[in-house]
Specification:
By secondary structure, this protein is of the alpha/beta class. The protein folds into 2 domains: 181 residues, Rossmann fold; 67 residues, SIR2/SIRT2 'Small Domain', CATH 3.30.1600.10. Helix content is 34%, strand content 17%. It is built from 12 helices and 10 strands. The two termini are 35 Å apart. The mean pLDDT is 93. Bound molecules: ligand BV8 and zinc ion. Ligand BV8 binds next to strand 9.
């Protein structure tokens, strides 16, 4: 059996919203796991949707560590495009709803694949950035981190490390680089009994394995996306479920824009649903 799919455009008062609110109210440890889709309503395009960044910049040509080392100037075309969309972006109602859940003691933290800093801007305090951040420049030779100057995003040359002159990259995790803070992820996932999965296509590992890890530990997985994903349909990488028939990871998919669906569940969890 697949996940329950709630089309929020068709059924804005579906009983599953109340169920999800109750799950969050009763959870001992709820956590959010977010991807690029949560920032789309802030004006930052995602990667894999039609018109997303990967339709302009093929990831194997621009977003691997090998591509950067071989041709940093080419990789910087992608980094500048991303930097341009992040500059001036403000958190939306989905980021704000997660921050409000944390402030009310209903969310232990956010694990994000995003590099845009919008969770922190919304007021979330515990944010684990598994794919790094775009606020800083990183030198792969000496490890130095430096603030990202605006001129670098406006210019067209490859910035060089002040300490060792090696070409710098944004402090983001490219394909083939190790993801960050796995100990912190483990800390948040351990004992997590409710996971909100927001705006990710769940295709990039190891992060995409997080919802299945929560599910295996007996937790409930609530998904918020415009469309079903491998988590909804159970066709995620076989080796993560050890063979056997397809089995969905998500218990409920709230289908619709995160800026609508996440606050709708948060209001029910916080008991403020009737105030609208
Ligand atoms: C590593 C950097 C080892 C550039 C990015 C296991 C199995 C198979 C493959 C692997 C595996 N383990 C590792 C791999 C290899 C690889 C991988 O996963 N490949 C896949 C694609 C086959 N993984 C890696 O290389 C990782 N590293 O494993 O290292 C290692 C260990 C030790 C030492 C050395 C090495 C590193 C992965 C990092 C990738 N970095 N980009 C940059 O960002 O500047 S990828 C890119 O995808 C972004 O970083 C992003 O964070 C990530 C995930 O994407 P999503 O956030 O999910 O975005 P997407 O567009 O896909 O989806 C958006 C969703 O939102 C859609 O579903 C859409 O419908 C929805 N949506 C849109 N609008 C809305 C919405 N939903 C709600 N509301 C809306 N309004
Ligand atoms: Zn250096």
């Amino acid at each position: 059996m697949g996940a329950v799919v709630v089309d929020m455009g068709m059924e804005p008062d579906h009983p599953a919203l109340e169920d999800a609110g109750r799950i969050l109210r009763r959870a001992r440890k709820a956590v959010a796991f977010t991807g690029a889709g949560i920032s789309v309503e802030s004006g930052i395009p995602d990667f894999r949707s039609p018109g997303g960044l990967w339709t302009v910049f093929a990831p194997e040509e621009y977003a691997t560590i090998e591509a950067f080392l071989e041709n940093p100037a080419k990789a910087w075309k992608l980094f500048r495009a991303i930097g341009g969309t992040i500059a001036g972006a403000r958190p939306n109602q989905a980021h704000e709803a997660l921050a409000a859940l944390e402030a009310a003691g209903r969310l232990a933290g956010v694990i994000t694949q995003n590099i845009d800093g919008l969770h922190q801007a919304a007021g979330s305090r515990r944010v684990v950035e598994v794919h790094g951040d775009h606020r800083r420049l990183q030198c792969l030779s000496c490890g130095r981190l430096a603030p990202m100057p605006e001129e670098v995003l406006r210019g067209d040359s490859v910035p060089a490390c002040e300490a060792c002159s090696a070409p710098q990259k944004p402090n983001v995790v490219l394909f083939g680089e190790a993801v960050r803070s796995l100990d912190e992820v483990e800390g948040l996932v351990s004992g997590c009994d409710a996971l909100l999965v927001v705006g990710t296509s769940a295709q990039v590992y190891p992060a995409a394995g997080i919802p299945a890890a929560v599910k295996r530990g007996g937790g409930t997985v609530l998904e918020f996306n415009l469309e079903p994903t491998p988590l909804t349909e159970g066709d995620f990488q076989g080796f993560f479920r050890g063979g056997g028939p397809p089995c969905p990871v998500s218990d409920i998919l709230f289908r619709g824009p995160a800026g609508t669906t996440v606050p709708a569940v948060a209001r029910r969890a916080l008991g403020t649903a009737k105030e609208r």
